[in-house]
Amino acid sequence: MPIRTLASDESFDLSFTPPGSKSITNRALLLASLAEGESVLHRPLIEADDTRRMLAAVAHLGATVEHLPGGSLKIGGVAGRWKPGGSGTGGGGGGVTLELGNAGTATRFLAAASILSPVPVVIDGNARMRQRPIGELTGALAALGAQIQHLGAPDCPPVRIVPPPSVPEGPTISFGHLKSSQFVSALLLLAPWIRGGLTVRHTAAITSPSYIWMSLRLLDHLGASIQHSDDLRVIRVSSSDADEAPSGACVRGLRAFELAIEPDASSATYWWAAAAMNPHARAIVQGLTADSLQGDTGFPELLERMGASVAIERSEGAEAPGISCQGPPVLRPIMADMTDMPDAAMSLAAVACFAPGASIMRGLATLRVKECDRIGAMERELGKIGVRVETNYQDDPSCIKITPPMGGIDCSHDVARVEFDTYDDHRMAMSLALIGLRRPNVFVRDPACVNKTYPAYWDELARLTNEKH
User: Fold this and answer.
1) Of the residues 164, 192, 243, 279, which has the maximum number of CB atoms within 10 A of its CB?
2) How far is CA 15 from the centre of its chain?
3) Secondary structure element (H or E) that encloses residue 121, with its range
């Protein structure tokens, strides 16, 4: 797909409302499916492949799913005990198989929740998912009494999970350094249905703590009992009814709820980045403010350090304020810790390509095991336009250094064509496309991969250049 470049005298001043947050949607879908009663989710992300896989899986496990007018969802919960059925492939011993593609949150969350099934559950995915490690989570499930069998590569899906006859009361799970914070969130989301709750202890630096905070704040909002140390080294989550339930009785977990899903902050980073890298351009993302559940709402602060102007504003006719970003005449390079917003790293890298001098990003360890090896992919793809990406910078495997070519990227109208590979990774496609707003003759391969989280992305990108898509 060709990307239309903004002319030197072109700019834009636009407002965006990205689709609902994938991270919040999938957390809420799991909690609603396990809750007692019928929950309603407003503005969930329902068009994307990841959430479609999650919806299909919870329906197969016994939850009911009803699409309401206006895009809301009504979820009938199973009251803490899955009721598998439908046409899924047998997992052996009367079990079921959940085919989850490359949906990381669905895979991790449903693997943990499988211990609430009366029959074995096989968690499987596409070829890339079968390379993504899950052993740290399945080890924790084994500690809770589940029988675990990895059916392919060691510690990766497909994995067969045989639920325990009963989960130990008030268990504690300890983790060292983790490849993904989703393993912790998966257990925390399960905790309201474990008698005595569940305690997680961290014995090493915490991976992507902002996503753990997201899970905790959502659980707290929906009525779970939350306790934690200030540094999250110790976390305990339980049902608020746990202390009232008679010994041996079923833990009530969560009751049905109604929830409005925030716009996706990771998707918002593309519009803020697009404005920052184009002098005087301005983008407002509606519905996101500093009190959002999502760590990526801190992204505009990074752009502000690079010279952009950032403000809380309300567009005409908008229901809620949003965060605006306006591009500076000249960008500055940046040193940034991306621990709390790793999914925004590629957006920041695209901006850094146009900042004179070297930019350094730390806290990127999880990018090696995302939809692709994003660190390696950035090194290869940005190299095609003369940008040097040094990995393992200063002997830190989570750190990269981005250095544009001397004199900047060639943005002349007859510059050689470049085709960016996207590795079936939605975030690689969306961030690399931004470069084409400044550099002519940019083409993005496999553009359909954005359907994972943002099916309307190309239509929205076309608005920046007044292009009909």
Assistant:
1) 192
2) 23
3) strand 121-124
Catalytic annotation present for 343: yes
- Distance of alpha carbon 193 from alpha carbon 238, whole angstroms: 7
- Strand arrangement, sheet containing 418-420: 2-3, 442-444, 418-420
Q: Closest by alpha carbon to 334, among 278, 277, 375?
A: 277
pLDDT in tens, 229-265: 999 999 999 998 754 444 444 567 999 999 999 999 9
d(CA 75, CA 52): 14
Model's pTM, two decimal places?
0.88
DSSP state of 20: B
150-192 pLDDT tens trace: 999 999 999 999 999 999 999 999 999 898 999 999 999 999 9
Distance CA 24, CA 265 (A): 10
When pLDDT is averaged across residues 381-385 and rounded to a whole number, the result is 98
Cα distance between residue 390 and residue 401, in whole Å: 5
Residues 6+ apart with CB under 8 A from 422: 428, 429, 432, 444, 445, 446, 447, 449
Distance CA 329, CA 308 (A): 9
Among the listed residues 49, 264, 296, 343, the single catalytic one is 343
Task: Tell me how far apart the alpha carbons of residues 416 and 131 are, in angstroms, rounded to a whole number.
Answer: 35
Q: Report the distance separating Cα 235 and Cα 67, nearest Å.
A: 35
List CB contacts of 94: < 8 A, sequence separation 6 or more: 119, 120
b/e per residue 333-348 (b: at least 16 CB within 10 A) = bbebebbbbbbbbbbb
Helix (H, G, I), strand (E, B) or coil at 227: strand
In sequence order, what E strands does 165-293 have?
Answer: 172-175, 198-202, 225-228, 234-238, 258-260, 282-286
Q: Report the alpha-carbon distance of residue 21 to residue 107 in Å, rounded.
A: 17
